[in-house]
Amino acid sequence: MGELCITTLGWEGAADVGQRLVQIVPADIRSEFVVNGEVASLKLHLEEQSIEALRIKVDAMLALFAEEEAQ
Questions:
Q1: What's residue 69's pLDDT?
Q2: Are 34 and 40 within 8 A, CB to CB?
Q3: In the chain, what are the domain boundaries?
Q4: 20 membership: H or E segment, kind and range
């Protein structure tokens, strides 16, 4: 069995922004979304076979979230 690189990416903020972010999470990424009043938290659990592949996936998700959050 090879190595598995794992990380969790978290976001917390306004529930309306969180609703938009959770809609753009790719289907192959496990996520947890919790709304508590007007505040939401979103956690993404990312896994890849190498650190480089994991870095690329994390960078892609951060760029996607930044683009959506800016709207």
A1: 77
A2: yes
A3: 5-70
A4: helix 15-23
DSSP 38: T
Q: 70 or 5: whose pLDDT is higher? A: 5
| Sign of the four-CA dihedral 16, 19, 21, 23 | negative
Of 20, 70, 17, residue with least CA distance to 39 = 17
Return the bridge partners of 46, or none. Answer: 7
Question: Left (φ > 0), alpha (ψ -120 to 50) or beta: where does 14 sit?
Answer: beta
Give me the amino acid identity at 71: Q
Mean pLDDT score, 3-14: 95
CATH of domain 5-70: 3.30.70
- pLDDT attached to residue 1: 61
Angle separating helix axes 15-23 and 51-70, nearest 10 degrees:
130
